[in-house]
Write a structure and sequence with these properties.
Elements lengths: L16 E2 L10 H14 L12 H14 L6 E4 L2 H10 L8 E5 L8 H10 L2 E5 L7 H7 L5 E7 L11 H11 L2 E5 L11 H4 L3 E5 L11 E5 L50 H15 L1 H21 L3 E2 L9 E4 L2 H13 L2 E2 L1 E3 L2 E4 L7 H10 L1
Parallel strand pairs: 1-11, 3-4, 3-5, 5-6, 6-7
Antiparallel strand pairs: 2-8, 7-8, 9-10, 10-13, 12-13
Length: 374
Amino acid sequence: MKITNQEPLFNIPAGVTFINCAYMSPGLRSASEAGIAAIHQRSEPWTIQVKDWFEPAEELKTLFASIINANKQNIALVPSVSYGIAIAKQNINLTADQEIVVLDQQFPSNIYAWRELSKETGARIVTVKKKESESWTEAILDNININTGLVAIPNCHWTNGALIDLKTISAKTKETGAKLVIDASQSAGVYPLDIQSIKPDFLVTAGYKWLLSPYGLAYFYADNKYFENGNPIEYTWIDKTGSENFSGLVDYTDTYKAGARRFDAGGFSAFINIPMAKAALTQILEWGVENIQETISDLTNRVSQIAKERGYIISEDNRVGHMLGIKLEESKVSEIAKRLTDNKIYVSFRGSSMRIAPYLYNDYNDIDKLFKFL
């Protein structure tokens, strides 16, 4: 079901054409209001009770779990994607004869940790490059074999929205015994993700893009098998059993709370970020991820149609519905970027693509305005 234009719910000034949600989402008015109320509460710490350190975060985990069809027990709150990937690295053991599969021009948050793991273990990094005639899914599958120890990929390529079939990739990793780590920053909240059918080892996503959450908050998923012996990357008091009893914190324990809570970052209570994120995820669930994807797909399809009519080349036809890339001559990128910005039209330039990523606050007029200035 298509959603009517939602621009009134966002803090977007008149005259600004923002088609760049893949960079950072504008703020929802409801999230801003929640944040302002939280700032006032934080200025009066005597009003913050013990339950406020735990219950709002647990409520947020429930909301995120609903978005990806997971169980709240599998969710932890972390400050960034790189933090979540570092947890994954801490819990994946490879040997020198194994391989780590990543994509060409993959976002670096899902690269640098694996380069370190390669140095530590001798495992070889395999960077997948695809031919024009094949999809990313096909190219990845061709590089998974009995030597593959880890596949670390996104749901879609961050430069142009090229789609990767995670269910198919997951089936191949299960067949070969490889671990699967997903950076879902460019899909969670806007593209339907079903953890129950993908079953990765770990998934992490930034909150400040399609999940409309504040910067400094990310969502982390860990499979059940990491609940009992999983290794966190910090040892905070708040993840331990009995931490709700502040007077008993000097009674040290080595026992963690149930599920993925051992991976919660210290300070995850985040008294300002959590209420803002709760307002954002509540709104996303009210709209419905499938409905969001259908609505935005209509806009990107219009971009694709007009671009092709005018002689532009779309970077990838096999893509998600919420963003796409238009190939540009490198010599013209700076000129085009300046012209658009001068007219308060905001998109991103990633690799050789102009990345266009609309959201529910955009409409056909925004798309037409973009092409007017191109």
